[in-house]
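agent> fetching stored inputs for the manganese (II) ion docking request
agent> found them:
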Amino acid sequence: MRILITNDDGMNAPGLVALESAAQRLGAEVYVVAPEREQSAQSHAITIRHPVFAHRLPLTHGEAMRIAVSGTPCDCVRLAMIKLLKLKPDLVLSGINHGGNLGWNVFHSGTVSAAAEGHGFGVPAIAFSLANWTNNVEWGGLDALCAKLIKQLLAAKHSRPDWLYNVNLPPVPAEDVRGVRLTRQNPMVKGDNFIEREAPDGRSYYWPIWDDVQAAREAQTDPEIDTVAVREGYISVTPMRYEVSNMDEPGVEAAFKNFTA
Ligand code: MN
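agent> prediction call returned; pasting tokens
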């Protein structure tokens, strides 16, 4: 089995090493093609007005081939699929992101988007994130946990060959994880905000922050919502699809009934 691994925290992120180690536990041939520096929240961004550079790094983590790319997470997957890998991978893994990718954040996430890009190339893919934004992170043991999850997902019956999952690990040590829950994306708890400050030259600038939406989140108790699952110590596994058409919109057909161009 050939596994392509990428992330959005960059080539030096500890979460990437954990995922490499997970893939190696499965006995896979591992190819790491990841951004040379952090590209968090780049979503599906790709580079179009600049060249993209890729350089091979020495083998440091087992036998995985590691290539650092000057672009975004989606650049990494595209370049790997089209140019860098001789054969198509059997699976794309992205992460493990430092911080959860839950609810609306899924749309901003470079981690999830990179996995989705693999899915776009017809390859099954899993995005992994650790729902812990603090610097107090215990990465040890997560590789074994991820290897177990990957194995289960590979063995599952899927409706399509290019299946896609968003997996979020709860912010607890691996041995304290309570189990797995199949979840759906939190419909909407946004805490986006900006702090306005003054630059030395007198101009205003804005520092993005996320307000504490704990109260709003605590009001939600449905165990099948991604944020609730990780809050309660479970691994959240959300099956995803990239199909945004909404054919249930009731009024629009009538609106265009007598339209002539
Ligand atoms: Mn990130």
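agent> quick read of the result: The radius of gyration is 20 Å.
agent> awaiting further instructions
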